[in-house]
Amino acid sequence: MAEFKLRVQIEGNLEKTITVDRDEFTMGRAPECNLHLPSSAISRCHARFTKAGEGVWKIEDLGSKNGTRLNDNLVIAPVKVKHGDIVQIGHVCLTLLFNEPVSSQPVVTVKIHPQVSAQKSPIAPITQGMTILRNVTELQQQWIQVDNQGDDNTNKEKAIARLKDLVDIAKCLNYAESIEAIFSQVQRVVFRELSSIDRLALLIDVSGLGKLELLNAATRNASKQQNLAPDGSWISRSICQRVFADKVAIQTADAQMDKRFEDEFSIIANDIRSAMAVPLWDENKVVGVLYADANLSFSHWTKGGEEDLSFFSTLANLVASSVQRWLLARKLRSEEKIRHRLERYHSPAVVQQMMVEGALEVGRLMPAEGEISILFADIVGFTALSERLSPAQIAELLNAFFEEMLQEVFAVGGTLDKFIGDCIMAFFGAPEVQPDHAERAVTAAQGMLARLERLNANQALREPLQLRIAINSGKAVVGDVGSSQRVDYTVLGATINLASRMEGVCPPGECVISEATYQLLKEPQGFEVMGEFRFKGIDRPVQVYQTKRH
Question: Fewer CB atoms < 10 Å away: N or C end of the chain?
């Protein structure tokens, strides 16, 4: 079976080698063609290569609208092709290169050059060894390689200059607090010491999940900075992932010529040829990739390639420590922000447990169903109180009241849902699972009533206050709910609605509980039957219990 290789050029100088094992190879606009060329100037089934014998190939036009040309002559009938022939299909040019593989079967390499004239299409053999792939451990030991060829003094001076640069950048990186400051230092050194590099990028695994994100990029020519696509489409993700996953440094003179990358679409689609990438390796963890590219020939790129790759890798090692510190500081700031938000709802002990156990997902407590007890505590006669006091006095009174009442909620591991005007909405049993959530809710209610009684007796508040408290138990959905701009940790469900309705039948200075809560109490002697009630939105009568009067 013949081996047929296609060097596919999609845009400008874009190329790719495709290997097929067939004696017939069709080209056209139709997806089922062996070479799919989606262009209106090309017919669905435009042309075909056919093996006519040992080492003999022919090109045939398949009745295309615009015709097929071989060396500028229209193909009327099947015609034999040879090394160096140029085939034109619409605006696409194909240069045929025949090599002799080990199998003795002919290898046909086809270069496709859109919008390039046939006369100017280059013919170049496939060069071996275009990619340097090195283990980073070895490069770490090398630091700076001095070429012994040529002028020793020149090379030594170059090595010393680079070493000074590394020392200087190490000092600067120690004080860099932002990722922008880190990249600025790297950019300055890279563009001065590595003249072959045109574009530079810093990719970081910010999430810690193995997903590289482009955080900074720059070009040597500042006027072309706006041409850098913010999505990083000009970067070879294939090369970066290989570097990141395998802890290897890669320098390639033509990635499209390297079989290790020949099936990677990003290398073709983004016109990636010469590239260099090294891992940001801090101890045993790779935190990102430093990536650079240039549109240079093999000879330019590989001259002193080992030395440049070693210097680039050493620089990345220094950057890795700074990036790791930046990631740690970023994580601490994020955790502090999360902790601050959570402490509005939970007791400090619960917050600490949640942080230690890693109960947060992307900074949120994801909604989940659970068994809880919900408590509503409302100030009696607050409307009349608001009429007598100024807004500032009301705010002062509520702040003092809420501060005192929440101590009772947090003391038993409860969670504040929200303040609704003068009402406290709290729940028990989440996010930490609490089998005795009903007991905790009742304990909190009794503590709130007793504390308020003491506050009134000591005239600690601007006005004497009374509470109505209602508690219900059952299933509810608990978690962060909201939009990307605002998120609230809350509870949802019929259990919450019933507790809210029950508060309306509670006598001043008392606590009422539902039948569900009453059944969960180990010692319900402190409550007596109040009666059955029907509430709006509830299609059944509800047995309500209230605190026993003494």
Answer: C
Residue with tokens 């040879």: 82
Q: Are 347 and 355 in contact (CB under 8 A)?
A: no
Structure-derived torsion over alpha carbons of residues 529, 531, 536, 538, reported in degrees to the nearest 10: 70
Q: What are phi and psi of 46, to 5 degrees?
A: -90, -55
> For the whole model, what pTM was predicted?
0.46
CA 98 to CA 100: how far, in whole Å?
7
Q: SS3 sequence, 37-84?
A: CCCCCCCCCCEEEEEEECCEEEEEECCCCCCEEECCEECCCCEEECCC
> Tokens at residue 232, please?
């990083």
Length of the chain measured in residues: 550
CB 496 within 8 A of CB 374: yes
Spatial separation of the C-alpha atoms in residues 517 and 547, rounded to whole Å: 13
Q: Which of 322, 317, 261 is nearest to 136 (CA)?
A: 317
pLDDT per residue, tens digit, the chain (550 aa), is 445 565 555 444 445 566 656 788 888 888 888 887 777 788 999 999 888 888 788 999 999 988 999 988 999 999 998 877 788 887 777 777 665 443 333 344 444 443 333 333 332 333 334 455 656 655 555 544 444 444 555 556 666 666 666 666 666 666 666 778 778 878 888 888 787 788 898 988 888 888 888 888 888 877 766 667 777 777 878 888 888 888 888 777 655 445 555 444 444 445 455 778 888 876 668 888 899 887 555 455 555 556 777 777 777 777 777 787 777 777 777 777 777 766 666 666 566 656 665 555 555 667 889 999 999 999 999 988 888 999 999 999 999 999 999 999 999 999 888 899 899 999 999 888 899 999 999 999 999 999 999 999 999 888 899 999 999 999 999 887 877 667 777 889 999 999 999 999 999 999 999 999 999 999 888 899 999 998 988 888 999 999 876 5
